[in-house]
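Reproducibility note. Readers wishing to regenerate the assembly model reported in the main text can use the exact inputs given here. Chain order matters: entities are listed in the order in which they were concatenated for prediction.
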Amino acid sequence: MPGIQAQYLGMPLQLAELDGENLDYFKHCAAHDFHLQACAQCGRLRYPPTTACPWCMSLESTWKKVEGKGAVHSYTEVHHAIQPAFRDHTPYMVLLVDLDTQKGEPTADEALRVIGNLCTPDGKLAPPDMVKRVGIGTRVRMVFTDVADGMSLPQWTIDETATQPATPWRYPQE
Amino acid sequence: MPLPRQEVDATTPKYLRDKYAIAGVGETTYTRGSGRTTRALGTWAVRNAILDAGLKPSDIDGMLDYSGGDSTSATFIAGDLGIRLNFYMDVVGGGSSTEALIGIAIGLIEAGCCKTVAIFRSMNGFSQVRIGGTGARSAAPVSGDMLHNRAYGWQSAGQSFAPTFMRHMYDYGTTPEQVAHVKMFHSRHASNNPKAYYKKRFTVEDVVNSRFICKPLHLLDCCVETDNATCVIVTSAERAKDMKQPLVLIRGVVGRCNKPRLDMHYQHGPISTVAGHYAKNILWPNSGVGPEDVDITGSYDAFTFTTMLQLEDYGFCKKGEGGRYVSDGTIGLGGRRPNNTSGGHLCEGYTHGMNMVIENTRQLRHDADDSCPVGPDGKRQHTYDYREGGCRQVRNVEVSANLGWANPATASAMVMRRG
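Running the prediction on these inputs yields the following structure tokens for the assembly.
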């Protein structure tokens, strides 16, 4: 403490004063300006925030602006919420999104896969009719949910300006 | 004073095949609402394992256990049973800990720290700390690394594993019906297990028509939450051969083998491949056998999908063919290679993996505790009639494989054989 305390959907969120990497990450999100750590030695971007570079072990990094665009790599659609905060919002979607930036690097199996909920453009959890439009392959863009001064959660919404797959892959049962 | 220099023979065989054994197994009743502490449950299960092995408390001098802060330390269980320990350690861990701790126990005995190790898991996974993450766990403040998962309603095991499951369906065309066969077969096995908490047989249709928890998981794709304790006793084969039970030998162990990027494993793909892909390269060479040599499996069924993914990545079928493998009859009693003949976590009870090792130990003794009549020698006279309420002993079992699961990125495994 002090750090940052927030309430989101009635759920307490805490950013500890000691947690420098996460404070920096969410501070950029609060400015609606997505940044990731770029390694000072090998230059690669990484997600989520880490202390050292997972590729070259360097402790030095700088925060670099990254375009919040990509495609859904996989997802889950939660119908039975576990956390009280989400019970009034089912079904909600958790999206694992491949950023276009650095996709397939340094190996073909790697990508910056950024988690977020499917949201409306103003950062609210998506309604059921929007959930039904999204699956693997859907093009999405990043939006933000403001939860406190200095803290916003990066989220995803359908990129209405992008060319979408004819039918994104969805689980066969609705 | 400097020690004299001398030639030390520090060689150890690379493999410890058949040098160690599971000498005893013990369980409590599988319940929802035990009405007891984890101390009482743990003491009960360890005592049962000691009796099963035909040992005295003084024969046990090592104790290991695992938990997520939801159990009782070995110190109390040992104290309650009058055991003086030469070694104990309480380890943080859930699924995949059983096989890993068996590996550690072998190492402890090799190192001369102790001779016979009781490993237990005691939990009130229904009435105290809900394994599904509901209750107090779901209401705790979200901070640190959890801001990248729990803040998104991505917390429970099912929620966090689901992207792996979903991507497998996308990559390989795996269907909900194929995977639902895992529950169908395990429920048939449980119907022949008097200890199983859920003994009812379910159909594939029952599974895919049950309500969604989080796609692709229906209610019946998910394991149960129960209160119970379980224990296995590890000792050298040399000691075990003089003990009460038929010899069950450990061929090889893999402990908590991982995919890259454990800080957030989805950063590395293919995400439809799980840690067994790496673990198999330790398991099969160490054990000196391959999947084709295995008669029964214990592939961890936290969910129907976890059984399928592991069987596939350990090489029981080609990559991508797990859906076919679990649905073609192979994994059912009477099939080529039955899986989780006790009903496993989907039906018997949830123990973070230990009941699957216990079951395979009993199978290798040719003494599955089903409803078959007990003969004059005190052994069950198995009928091999697998109809509901009948036998669950697999005929002529010689080799088993347990495939423990913590999450898509972490796995343990063990091959055992009949001595």
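We highlight two features of this model. Chain A touches chain B through 48 residues (CB under 8 Å). Chain A has one domain: 10-158.
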